[in-house]
Design goal:
2 domains; alpha/beta; Rossmann fold; disordered C terminus
Length: about 230
C-alpha cells in the first residue's frame, strides 16, 4: 500500500468522524484523510478522489436510506473497498452490509485498536468482522437484492435525485437543492423510473425502502411533478 493513501470517511457525527480519522492515521501515518458529513458530499468527494484507497461509511447519514448508499457506491466504484461503521450491532444488520459488498463492519462500540486492525485487514485485501460474529455467508432477500442491483446502475446525480424523492421532496425542491432546472430533474426522474422498473415517484421511494436497516412505513408522497 502506497504510504500516501487517500482515505475517505463519511459520518455525520463530528466526534466519531474524528475518532475514525485518528484510527486511520494510526493505521496509516502518512495517509491523507478526506471527510464528508452526508451522502451528497461523499459522492462529490469520491468524484474528486476516484482512486481513493478506502472508504469508511456510516450507515445512517443524511442522503441515504439504510444500505442504499453502500449498494450505489459498490456498483459505481467497485474498486473502492468500503468499511461500514454503524451503531447497530445486530448480526443480521452486519450480514446484510457484507452481502451488499462491504469489506468490513465496525460497530461504533469497537475499540480503537480493533478499528486499526480492521483498516489494515481490508487494505491487505481481506474481510474483517467483529470477533463475536461467525463468518457465515449472508443471503439477501430477493426484493432487496433486486433493489440494490437497480440502485447500483444509477449515476451519482441520479442517486442524489432518488434519495431526495425518497425523502418526499418535490421536483422544484430537488431542483433548488441540486442547482439544476426542473426540466433536468424530470429527465432524471424518467431515467430513474426506467432503471428502477417502476412507474411513479411513490414506487421509487418504496424501492429505496427495500434497503432500509429497519422496516419503515412509507411516508405518502405527493404526485406533484412541479
Amino acid at each position: 500500500m502506497d504510504p500516501m493513501s487517500d482515505i475517505l470517511i463519511a459520518d455525520d457525527h463530528p466526534l466519531f468522524r474524528d475518532a475514525m480519522q485518528r484510527a486511520v492515521i494510526s493505521a496509516l501515518p502518512h495517509a491523507t484523510v478526506h471527510t464528508a458529513d452526508d451522502v451528497h458530499n461523499l459522492l462529490a468527494l469520491i468524484e474528486q478522489f476516484p482512486d481513493a484507497d478506502l472508504l469508511l461509511l456510516d450507515l445512517h447519514m443524511p442522503g441515504a436510506r439504510g444500505y442504499s448508499a453502500l449498494a450505489h457506491i459498490r456498483g459505481q466504484y467497485p474498486g473502492l473497498p468500503t468499511i461500514v461503521v454503524s451503531g447497530h450491532e445486530e448480526s443480521h444488520v452486519v450480514r446484510r452490509a457484507m452481502a451488499h459488498g462491504a469489506s468490513a463492519y465496525i460497530p461504533k462500540s469497537t475499540s480503537g485498536e480493533a478499528i486499526v486492525e480492521a483498516i489494515r485487514t481490508v487494505l491487505a485485501g481481506d474481510v474483517w468482522l467483529p470477533h463475536q460474529l461467525p463468518e457465515d455467508d449472508a443471503v439477501l432477500k430477493t426484493d432487496e437484492a433486486a433493489a440494490a442491483a437497480r440502485i447500483a446502475t444509477l449515476t451519482p446525480q441520479q442517486f442524489r435525485v432518488m434519495t431526495m424523492i425518497a425523502e418526499g421532496l418535490l421536483n422544484k425542491q430537488i431542483a433548488y437543492e441540486l442547482r439544476v432546472s426542473e426540466a433536468t430533474v424530470k429527465a432524471h426522474m424518467t431515467t430513474i423510473m426506467r432503471k428502477m422498473g417502476v412507474n411513479n415517484r411513490t414506487q421509487v421511494a418504496l424501492a429505496a425502502s427495500q434497503l432500509a436497516v429497519d422496516p419503515l412505513a412509507l411516508i405518502p408522497l405527493s404526485d406533484d411533478r412541479g
